[in-house]
Automatic annotation (TrEMBL):
A Pfam family per the record: Aminotran_1_2
Protein name, per record: Pyridoxal phosphate-dependent transferase
InterPro entries named among the record's database cross-references: Aminotransferase_I/II_large, PyrdxlP-dep_Trfase, PyrdxlP-dep_Trfase_major, PyrdxlP-dep_Trfase_small
Lineage of the organism: Eukaryota, Fungi, Dikarya, Ascomycota, Pezizomycotina
Keywords: Transferase
Keyword Transit peptide assigned: no
Length: 437
C-alpha cells in the first residue's frame, strides 16, 4: 500500500486557489495596453512609491480602520512587502550600537528574528510575554529601565555607526509586534494594551513596528452568528493610537509604523506592501539606500495592483471570497480540533468571543508531551507537518522561563486544501495519542 500523502499544516502561505488570478491578469493587461500607465510602470519609480496606489491605499485604509481623520497619501510609502520593509526600517531608524534592544512580543514570527540579526541585533533580541491576560507591562517597564541604566553606565549617548541625516531618526529601542490575529497565537492586543505600549514607546524613545498583515481577514467565531460589518476594524491600529493618544505624537516622527502587505490578500509573489506612519517616517523610509538607487522596489507590481482599486475588485475579492473561504477553513479545522484533540487534553488559546481571524490556531499540549518531539513524530510516522512552538521563541533571549513554548503547536489553515484539514488533525491526534500511551 502506498504511504499517505503528506498534509502540511505548517506553511503560512495562501493556497493558490485563493488568489485573484483572473483579476490580476486583467489588471496586467490594462497596464500593458496603456502607454500612459505602462511607460512609468516599467521605469524606475519615485522613491516613496507609485502615487496612484498611495492615494488608493489611503482611501481604502481610511474606510476599513475609520480613524478620526482621513489617512493621507503622504503618510504612506510603498514597499517591497512587510519583510523587505522591516529590514528597511532597521536600516534607517536604528544603530546597532546605540539602539539598545529589539523587543519582540512573544511568541513571535520566527523569521523576523533573522531580519533583526542581519541588522546587527544578534544577542539584543528580548521577549515581551503576551498571553490571554495581555502584555506583561511590569516586566517590560523594568527591563526597559535596566537597558537605560546600562546605556548610561556605558555612556551610550549617541549613534555610533549612523551619521546624522535629516530624513532619519535613530531610536533607542525597537518594539516588534503583530497586534491583530498574531502569528502564531492569533491573539489580538487589546486597545488598553495598545495605548500603554504607545505610552511606553514615547517615554523610552522606542519605535513600534507592527505587522498589520492579517487585519482584514476577520470573521465570527460562531458560524451561526455572522460578523456584523466584517469590512470594518474592531480595534484601532497601534499607529492610529499614536496618531491621537494624548493629543498625538510628541514630535514630527511619532513612535509607530504600520507594516502592511498584499501577500495574504493577492499573493506573496507580487512583493508589494506599504508602510504607514507620520509623513517624516514615510519619507525617511523612502530614502533607504536601495530605494534611492533604484526607486520604489515594486513599481511594476504596484501599477498592476493599483488597477484593482478603481474597479472595486480588491474589495470584492476580500469581502466576497477571501473572508468566507478562510472562515470556512477555520470552522473546519476548529471542528476537527474539538472532535479529535480536545478529548485528549489539548487546549486552545482563548480567542475573542466576538471576532477571530488570520491564518493560525495555537494549541497547548497536555503534559508530558513536548512539541519538539511531537512535531517530529507527527511528520515521520503520520505524514502531517505542524509547527513546533519552540520555533516562535525570540532567538537569543536570555530569559528562557518567559520564552518557552515547548507545549505549543501552531496549525495553519491557509495552505492545505480545505478537504484535507480535518484529516491532518486526525493524524495529529494519532501522534498525540501515541505519545500519551
Amino acid at each position: 500500500m502506498d504511504s499517505p500523502e503528506e498534509i502540511n499544516l505548517f506553511s503560512g502561505w495562501p493556497n493558490p486557489a485563493l488568489l485573484p488570478i483572473n483579476a490580476l491578469a486583467e489588471a496586467c493587461a490594462t497596464v500593458m495596453a496603456s502607454p500612459a500607465v505602462r511607460v512609468p510602470a516599467l521605469r524606475y519609480g519615485p522613491d516613496i512609491g507609485y502615487q496612484p496606489l498611495r492615494e488608493h491605499l489611503a482611501q481604502w485604509l481610511t474606510s476599513f480602520y475609520q480613524p478620526r481623520d482621513p489617512i493621507s497619501a503622504e503618510r504612506i510609502c510603498i514597499t517591497g512587502g512587510a519583510s523587505q520593509n522591516l529590514a528597511c526600517i532597521l536600516q534607517v531608524f536604528t544603530d546597532p550600537a546605540y539602539t539598545r534592544n529589539v523587543w519582540m512580543i512573544a511568541p513571535t514570527y520566527f523569521l523576523a528574528c533573522r531580519i533583526m540579526d542581519d541588522a546587527g541585533f544578534a544577542g539584543h533580541l528580548r521577549a515581551i510575554p503576551h498571553n490571554e491576560s495581555g502584555l506583561d507591562f511590569a516586566f517590560f517597564r523594568q527591563e526597559l529601565a535596566k537597558a537605560e541604566e546600562k546605556a548610561r553606565a556605558e555612556q551610550n549617548f549617541e549613534p555610533k555607526y549612523k551619521p546624522t541625516r535629516p530624513w532619519a531618526k535613530i531610536y533607542k529601542h525597537i518594539i516588534y509586534a503583530t497586534p491583530t490575529f498574531s502569528n502564531p497565537t492569533t491573539l489580538t492586543i487589546t486597545l488598553s494594551d495598545r495605548e500603554r505600549l504607545v505610552q511606553l514607546a514615547r517615554e523610552f524613545d522606542a519605535l513600534i513596528v507592527t505587522d498589520d498583515v492579517y487585519d482584514l481577514l476577520q470573521w465570527s467565531p460562531d458560524p451561526e452568528k455572522p460578523l456584523t460589518q466584517p469590512d470594518k476594524a474592531r480595534v484601532p491600529r497601534v499607529v492610529d493610537v499614536d496618531r491621537y493618544l494624548d493629543g498625538g505624537p510628541k514630535d514630527e516622527w511619532g513612535n509607530v509604523v504600520s507594516n502592511g502587505s498584499f501577500s495574504k490578500l493577492i499573493g506573496p509573489g507580487v512583493r508589494t506592501g506599504w508602510a504607514e506612519s507620520t509623513e517624516k517616517v514615510a519619507y525617511g523610509l523612502s530614502q533607504t539606500g536601495s530605494s534611492r538607487s533604484g526607486g520604489t522596489p515594486s513599481q511594476f507590481s504596484a501599477a498592476i495592483i493599483d488597477q484593482l482599486f478603481p474597479t472595486g475588485l480588491i474589495q470584492s475579492h476580500v469581502d466576497q471570497f477571501l473572508r468566507p473561504k478562510y472562515a470556512e477553513r477555520y470552522y473546519r479545522l476548529m471542528s476537527a480540533i474539538q472532535e479529535h484533540l480536545l478529548p485528549l487534553g489539548v487546549t486552545l488559546a482563548s480567542a475573542s468571543p466576538e471576532i477571530v481571524g488570520g491564518y493560525f490556531i495555537w494549541i497547548y499540549l497536555p503534559p508530558p508531551l513536548r512539541a519538539s518531539d511531537l512535531a517530529t513524530v507527527a511528520l515521520q510516522e503520520y505524514k502531517v507537518k505542524v509547527s513546533d512552538g519552540n520555533l516562535f521563541r525570540v532567538q537569543g533571549d536570555p530569559d528562557t522561563s518567559r520564552n518557552d513554548f515547548d507545549r505549543n503547536i501552531r496549525l495553519c489553515f491557509a495552505w492545505e486544501h480545505e478537504d484535507r484539514l480535518a484529516e491532518g488533525v486526525r493524524r495529529l491526534a494519532c501522534a498525540i495519542r501515541n505519545g500519551l500511551e
